[in-house]
Fold this sequence. Notes:
The complex is a heterodimer.
Chain A: H1 2-23, H2 28-42, E1 60-68, H3 76-80, H4 84-99, H5 111-132, E2 140-150, E3 153-163
Antiparallel strand pairs in A: 1-2, 2-3
Chain B: H1 2-12, H2 14-17, H3 24-42, H4 57-61, H5 74-93, H6 97-115, H7 126-146, H8 155-183, H9 188-191, H10 195-210, H11 220-227, H12 229-245, H13 253-274, H14 279-290, H15 292-301, H16 306-327, H17 335-346, H18 357-391
Amino acid sequence: MISSLIHKVLFCLRSVIRSFGSRWRTSPLTALLIFCVLSLVLKENYPFSNFPMYTNPSPESSYFSITDGEGNDLPIARLTGVTCPKVGKIFKKKAAESQKKQRVKPAVLSAEVTQAIGAEIFQYLRESALALRTDLPAKLQLRHTRIAYEDGRIRETPQILAQE
Amino acid sequence: MIMTLRRLASFLVSGWSRQPAVSPLEGFFLRLFFGIVILYTVQFGVEQTREPHPVGLLKLLQPCGLTLTWLADPEAYEVFHRIIVGVTFLYIIGIGLPLVLPLLAVLHILPFTLYNSQGYTHHGYQIISLTLLIQACTAVYSAFRERRVFQWPSADLRRWLLVQSQVVITGTYLVSVVTKMDSSKGMWLLNSHHVALDMVKTQRQNYLNDLDPKYAKTTADAIWFLERPGISRILFSSGVVLEAVCIFAIGNRLLGLLFGLSLILMHRTIAHLMGLTFIYNEWLLMIFLVGFPFGLAWCFERVRSLPIRRGLLMGLAMALPVSAYFQGEGGGVTLQTLGAHLRDIMNLLGLWSQWDAAEFSGFVIPLVLTFLACGLVGAIAGWVCQLKRREV
C-alpha cells in the first residue's frame, strides 16, 4: 500500500521534472529560481536583498533612539535625515563587525565597545546635521529600549548605551 | 472532486506555461507608468558623502579606487539626473531596449547603492532596481535570440518583459518568506502573534523620528492582538501565506488582479497597524500584477476605428501643453514650464500614500477634465477625418 503510494508520488514528480526539463528555458520558473537563489546568497547587496525585516517574532522587541544630554527625545530624522531604525541598523552593523559575528545583542557588548560605537554614531549624526545645516545639542545620548508584554501590559525598559 | 482539484491546480499554474499576449499599446502604457515611477524615485538625489559600509557594486568599485560619493555633489547629480531622465524617455518610447534598459538599470542602481552603503539598508527601492535589472537581462537575451536591437519591441519581448517583471515582484515576496522561515527555524507562523510587539516598536520609532504627535498612539491595538494569540496568528500568518502563493499570479491576468489587490490590501493594513508604508511595492503591483496598463489599453482598443483611436491619443497628448498653459503660473508654454508641469503630474503619485483633498480638487480634477476634453476633441477630429475619407 505505502510502497504503491510512494511509487505513484515518485512517478508524478518524475513526470513534472521531465516536463519542466524540456521547457526550462521558456519557463518563468527558471528566472524565479535563479532570482530567489541569488537574493538568498547575496543577501544585503543592493539591488539584491533577502528582506530580513521582522523575520523572527519573539516575546521581546526593542528600538534605538537619540536624546539630548538630559534624556529629552530629539526629532532626529528632521535634524539629521537619519531615522531611528537607521540608527539601530548602524549600531547593529558596527556591533556585529566588532564581534565578527552575524548578529549581536547590545546586552552582550562591553560598556567600552558600546561607548565606542556610540561615539562613531554621534560623529555620523553631527556630520549629517552639518550637511542639512541644522543644530544638534552639545551632548547626545544613544538609548536602547526593550519592549515586552507582561501581566497584560506593555513594559518598556530604556537603557543608555552611549553618551557624550 | 479529484477532477475539480486537478482543474484548479491546472488553472493556478497555467500562467507558468502559457504567458499572456501584450499589445503594443499595453506595452507602451507599461513602460510609461513604470518610467514615471523610476523618475519619481530619482528626483530627490542623495546626500551621503561617505561609503563606510560598501554594498553591491561598491564592493567591486572601491578596490579599484572608484567611489560613488560624487553623486552627493548637487551639480554632479543635476547632470546625472538629466541623463537618467533622457534614458527613461527612450525607455518609454521603447526604441533600442537592449541598449537602453541595461544603461537605465545601472543608472538607477548607482545612487541607491551609495544610499545603502551607510551601514543601514532601505528596502524601498530594491524592487524597482531589480525589475529594471531583469527587464535589461530579458531585452539583451531577446536581442541575441531575435538578432534585432534598434527596432520596436517584438510581441515576444513585450510579453516577456511583463512576465519577468512579475517574476521579480512575486519573487521578492517569496524570498522574504524563505528568510522568515530560515531565521525563525520554521517557527514564524507559530510565533507570529509577537509581531504585535513590533507594531509598538515601529510606532515608537515613527514618533521619535520627528516627534510627530500623530504617531504618539497608545498601545491598545498591540495589546488587543497580544491578548488574542490565536486570532493574531491567523491574521499575521495569512499575510505570509499570501506572500508565498502570489507566485501563481505569474503570467495569469485574473490571478494577477486578485493577488495584486490582495497584496496592496496587505500593505495598507500594515501601514495602518505599524505605520510602515510600501508605496513603491504598491505602484509596481498596480502596474505589473493588477494590470492597470492592461485595463487602460483594453479600453482604448475597444475603439475599433483607427482614425478615431489615433485622434483620441493625439488629443490626450495635446492635453499636456494645454493643461500646462491653464495650470501653469502664466507666461505661456515653454519647454521649462512643460517640464515643471510634467514634474507636478509625476508628483501626484505621492497622493497614493498621503491623501491631500486640496491637491486633488485644485489640481487633479482640472487636469483630468482637460485630458477628457482634449481626448474628446481629438476623437471627434478623428471621426470627421474618417467621414471625409469615406466621402472621397
